[in-house]
Design a protein that fits this description.
Helix content: 25-40%
Strand order of the largest sheet: 5-6-7-3-8-9
Radius of gyration: 18 Å
Largest sheet: 6 strands, mixed
Strand content: 25-35%
CATH superfamily of the largest domain: P-loop containing nucleotide triphosphate hydrolases
Number of strands: 9
Order of helices and strands: EEEHEEHHHEHEHEEH
CATH topology of the largest domain: Rossmann fold
CATH architecture of the largest domain: 3-Layer(aba) Sandwich
CATH class of the largest domain: Alpha Beta
Number of domains: 2
Distance between the termini: 35 Å
């Protein structure tokens, strides 16, 4: 399981501080796929980065007894001066995977061609995202964190990614951020709503979507 205990996070803005996580305590169950819903600016991506240890909370703790991916599509943890091939090997060593397998899978799945041996800093945002998705899928995680990755790229690549993701989801838990309600319905068993710093987990997916639609239509 993944457990957040009294997690707080806020950012300084031009109008003062904005709190996105206000003393949040929640436990994500093993063997379930959970969608994260929230209005724009609610802090969904921040929450995913904190769970994946890509960003620290201001206070509180995040604990997990299984291996968690970084947010799929998040490229902030890779070295821009290294090539995709070198980054793939580096990831393999960190996670104790076979470097040859991780390299080969990532090269084939990313479809980067000759750019696979160019530094990541020369990539477009889409190419960096494609590399990040591919190397994430190459590793075997018990939890996959996904931040809008299923809607990235052209239609053919989205379908390719979706099919590979379905294979991973059959044996792993997923925490998924998406603005697409159909994506949540198709990939999640339950959902959590992040709103004004509070995170509420709903075991009933329909109830979560109903509440989220209410928030979307509420006057602001």
């Amino acid at each position: 399981m993944i457990r957040l205990q009294n997690v707080n996070k806020r950012y300084r803005t031009q109008n003062g501080f904005k709190t996105v996580l206000d003393n949040v305590s929640v436990e994500f169950p093993v063997g379930a796929s959970v969608g994260i819903l929230g209005l724009n600016g609610a802090g969904k991506s921040t929450l995913i980065r904190i769970i994946g240890a890509a960003e620290p909370p201001d206070s509180g703790s995040v604990t997990c007894d299984q291996r968690v991916s970084w947010p799929l599509g998040y490229s902030g943890g890779f070295q821009g001066t290294l090539t995709a091939r070198e980054n793939a090997r580096f990831v393999a060593r960190i996670y104790g995977e076979d470097p040859r397998y991780i390299e080969a899978f990532t090269q084939e799945f990313s479809e980067l061609g000759d750019y696979f041996d160019e530094p990541l800093k020369s990539y477009s945002a889409g190419m960096r995202g494609r590399f990040a998705f591919s190397v994430s899928l190459a590793c075997n995680f018990e939890y996959y964190l996904v931040d809008e990755a299923l809607e990235t790229g052209d239609a053919r690549y989205r379908e390719k990614f979706r099919m590979a993701f379905e294979e991973r989801r059959a044996s792993a838990s997923v925490i998924l951020v998406s603005h697409n309600e159909q994506t949540i319905r198709r990939n999640c068993d339950m959902a959590a709503i992040l709103h004004e710093g509070s995170l509420v987990l709903y075991e009933d997916l329909k109830a979560a979507l109903h509440e989220y639609n209410r928030l979307q239509n509420a006057p602001r």
